[in-house]
Predict the structure.
Amino acid sequence: MTNAEIAAVFEEIADLLEFKGENAFRIRAYRNAARTVEGMVESLAGVRADATRKLTDFDGIGSDLATKIETLLDGSPLKMLEDLRKAVPASAFEVMRVPGLGPKKARILVEQLGIDSLDALEAACQEGRVRELKGFGAKTEAAILENVGFAKNPENQRLLWYDADLLVQRLLDHLRGCSAVTRVEGAGSWRRGKQTVGDLDIVVDSDNVAAVMDHFASFAEVQSVMLRGDTKMSVRLTGDVQVDLRVVRAASFGAALQYFTGSKEHNVLIRGRARDRGLSVNEYGVFPIAEGEKAAAAARDRTPEHGGTEEEVYAAVGLPWIPPELREGREEIAWAEEGRLPTLITVDDLRGDLHMHTHATDGEDSLADMAAAAIARGLDYIAITDHGQRVSMANGLNRTRLLKQWEEIDRFNESLCEQARSEGRRSPRLTVLKGIEVDMLEKGGLDLPDEVLQQGDWVVASLHYGQSQPREKITARIIEAIENPHVQVIGHPTGRLINRRPSYDVDMEAVIEAAAHTGTFLEINANPMRLDLDDVHAAAARRAGVKIVISTDAHSTRGLDLMRCGVMQARRAGLAAADVANTHTLTALRKLMHAKGR
Ligand code: DGT
Ligand code: CA
Ligand code: CA
Ligand code: ZN
């Protein structure tokens, strides 16, 4: 079992205990353990195998939890979890998937109204039975009704790209270990970097289909083989993830990779261009159309004219190779045709990370830890942006604590400069900007006064409270923040949490326009659950001339590694390095910041 899977088990135990109304202390112990495990760099299996180390060395892992982790690592079932699952009705799990319905409320709904499905919950809301419950009311009922629709939508039950990516990397590693495999690539929505992924698609180049399929089936997490044909095999992994594998010959590998990367919309356009040229493109290659439809059907037995690489397929329809992230049937064909394909941003283009937390608020690590981790990742500058005082749950900073933190940052930068001098370098390895993530208050305004903000370097304004306010109100709050001369960037501008919570109701066109007008940046928050702005909004922002900032919003040193998820969205939006403010040197970034009139 991986750390993520063990963390998921602990989360589930916490939910089930909470559903049963058990001791809050016990529930929190499991939630804390889940967080600790999820955040570990090394694998628990590795720690356990190391005789010099103990699982109980980690914060929040006592002997009881350590025993449970060992059981899970052995692949044995956890009796406690099995008992809990039996004690909680299956419908409860479904109800808990509704945004805003935690285990406590779910329990009331199941016990008092006998809710046994999302349909039943929807009906109960429509019939006004939910508002009668203690602690619910008409407003809550209306919110639940809306969120049931969200939970029922299959679009909200897909894998996060980040989770899909971890799986794909392991599958590719596994397949590379098979001597019959010549080339192997992931395809489908994963390769296009879509925010969520339905199933995983993998394409293999091999002359020995049987050997590849046998090897594929031996992947440890394969639960069942759903289909095994001549070229295609589908399996189901633990966690209910489907993987489609295609095995083709070398001469068809590029064509198959192109075909199964999709999107369908993109491929329809490519096939149309092929037809105009008297060609037919399918997953086996490019063929002259003159040979008729039959030729396509028999194509896999013949050698195609082009198809060994994706470049050949695109060249056959008169186009340069198009990066997978752009293949959505939007503007990419026109760009390719006119030679205007952007050079998409890469993780290596980023010089700074401008949104992160420390243990002063809800982060796990210190300023020095975050700085060391940033240096290790080759960054030139970071901004420490802990929460402002409104976020009391996260121990948000008031004026005094913030100014103290900023003094600490000044001293820290000074020490980095001294170190540089002593090593004969002209500039420090890293510059830490004095930042803050202020909250846009429900009634308007920010949770720290301008007189404080002007003493810092970098202000992120985010909206965490009053998210269900009407569109005009939310939009006005955000535009007010944009118009504040001290605010450099709007953090996670739509507030959506993928699969969990829709964005708040906001007029993004107006927000983008205001950002363009004032020279305020908009963030692509790289957290895999946020990816906010998404690809479509980020593309709209670029068209309007707004500069984007891609930030990790890291709450620990490891969180800094999430940058690539944000970069993926930026690539889907067609952004080049120059469109993103934190690809610039600190000097150039400062110039961009001054454009706002600071
Ligand atoms: P997903 O899995 O829902 O996140 O999205 P995709 O894009 O990975 O879709 P999937 O797995 O159904 O198929 C992978 C690619 O294969 C898809 O993007 C285009 C291609 N493809 C699959 N089935 C068809 C089909 O029936 N017609 C065409 N034109 N293309 C297909
Ligand atoms: Ca797929
Ligand atoms: Ca598929
Ligand atoms: Zn944050």
